[in-house]
Amino acid sequence: MDTRTWDTLVSSMKSTYVNGVGEGATPRPVIMPLVRGELVGLIWVRPTKPGADALTGIAALSNIAAAACADEVVLAWETHDVATACELPVVGPAPCLNMVHATPDGHVLHQFPYSEEFSSDGSEDAEGATAALAWERAPAPQPGGELPPPVQAAVDYAFTPMELDHPNPFGVTVVLMEDDGYTVRLTDGFDH
C-alpha cells in the first residue's frame, strides 16, 4: 500500500472516531480490504451480543476480504470497545483507535491513543454534555504487534481462499454479510 492510501485511511478513521464519539458512540470495528492497491470498500461488524457472538462477528469480517482475494487488509477498532464486547482484558492504550495493516506475510499495528474531553451546555443534567477527542502522541508502529484474538482471526482468515461453489463468490458473500447485519460500503471503482 502506498503512503498516500495509508494516510487517507488513517485520516478517514480518525474523522469517523471524532464524529462518532462526538455523537456518543464509538464506531464499530471495520475491515478495509485492498486488491492490488485498490480499496474494495469498508465493512463494519454487525451488531453483536457480548462474548462469543462478538468474537465471531469480528473474526467473520475476514469473509469479505477472502472473497475479494485481497492481498492487503486494514482493520480498525477501539481498544476498550472490543475488549468489552468480547469479554477480554484491555491490552494496550485505552481509549485508542487501533489500525492494523496486514498482508499474507505479516502485519503492523498502529495505535492512535486519544482522550475524551467533555463539555457541558450549562444545563444541570448530564444529557447536555458533549464529547470531543484530543489525539495523543502515537507510539511507534509495531511489526507483528499483539492483536486481540478476534482481530488476529480476521487477519489470519482474510488471506484464506474461500471455497464457494458459486459463479460470483464475492457478490454472494456481500449479500450474505449484508443479510447478517454487516454494513458494506463498496468503492465505486472496485470491479471484481
Can you describe this structure?
- It contains 6 helices and 9 strands.
- It is α+β, with helices and mostly antiparallel strands.
- Strands 1, 2, 3, 4, 5, 6, 7, 8 and 9 form a 9-stranded antiparallel sheet that branches.
- α2 runs parallel beside α5.
- Mean pLDDT is 89; it is low at 122-126.
Fold topology:
Elements: H1 3-22, E1 30-35, E2 38-39, E3 41-44, H2 52-59, H3 62-67, E4 72-78, H4 79-86, E5 96-103, E6 106-119, E7 130-135, E8 142-143, H5 149-158, H6 169-179, E9 183-186
Antiparallel strand pairs: 1-2, 1-3, 1-4, 3-9, 4-5, 5-6, 6-7, 6-8
Q: What proportion of the residues form beta strands (DSSP E)?
A: 25-35%
- Describe the global form: globular
The total of helices stands at: 6
Mind describing the biggest β-sheet?
Answer: 9 strands, antiparallel
Query: Roughly how much helix do the residues carry, as a percent range?
Result: 25-40%
Return the string of H and E elements: HEEEHHEHEEEEHHE
